[in-house]
Amino acid sequence: MKKREAYRSFLILIAAVTVFGLALSGCNYERRVQNSTYDYGTKQKGDPKMLGSRMYGTMSGLPGQHDNHWFEYSSLISGDVSSINGVAGALVFLTDKNAYVAITTDWTATGTRKSGGPKEQNNGGSTQGVYNVENGSPYWNNQRMVTPYNSQLSINDHNQISGELKQTIAVHVRRLAPAVQEVHISANKEFNNHLIQYAQEAWAGHSLTPYFASFNKLVKHQFAGGDEVPAPLNVQQQRAKNHL
Question: CA 185, CA 56: separation in Å to the nearest integer?
């Protein structure tokens, strides 16, 4: 009888240890996910993504920080940032002072947006073989990187992008461009659509020098509360042709 009771106690102990081990394993797995670049929303203390000083946004507070004297598209850094979990695509431009990053997001990570909000894209048409689900159009304008339909995701206000995601992006940028003073990041639809046209000019081997004034207006509007939004690059180019 005593042996049977001892054996029963032993089985209960084994079961308890097993359950505790599974619970501990589950907690460790959950924490590993939260610490990884698959999760930008948990804000756990000690998350390695947020260790150290903030690497993005306004750092100096000096006037004229967005008065850049030149800018260039960086294929290398754009590709590197595009490989980050949660980032669908990225366009990175370097200047004599800063790095400017336009991103779109996807579902490869959680918490990319700080708080909930209305979805800016309707991707229902992808299951119906059309581009615009509202009017049935199959056409897409390749001068636009982000659209309301069948597009990667945008976030209108750059302040609504997760700080963990922005920190992760800034670390990638600064590793490849250590001389930049500030890293400014946006997932705004129109910002993306402006920058894709500058990138297309660079891809075609054309100089970006004629456009640095309009580029400065664009980044001031996006990151410094500037009132003026420049015309899209294709509109600027058409106006220039009309004045010839």
Answer: 8
**1 burial type by CB count under 10 A (0-12 exposed, 13-18 middle, 19+ buried):** exposed
* Residue 96 DSSP class: S
User: 93 in helix, strand or coil?
Assistant: strand
Strand arrangement of the beta sheet that strand 71-73 belongs to: 71-73, 87-95, 98-105, 182-186
Q: For 173-207, what is each residue's pLDDT tens digit? A: 999 999 999 999 999 999 999 999 999 999 999 99
The Cα 126–Cα 217 span in angstroms is 35
> Phi-psi category of 103—alpha, beta or left, where left has phi over 0 and alpha has psi -120 to 50?
beta
Tell me the CA distances in angstroms from 60 to 55, 56, 98, 142, 152, one per residue in order. Answer: 12, 11, 11, 37, 33
Calpha distance 243→17 (Å, rounded): 81
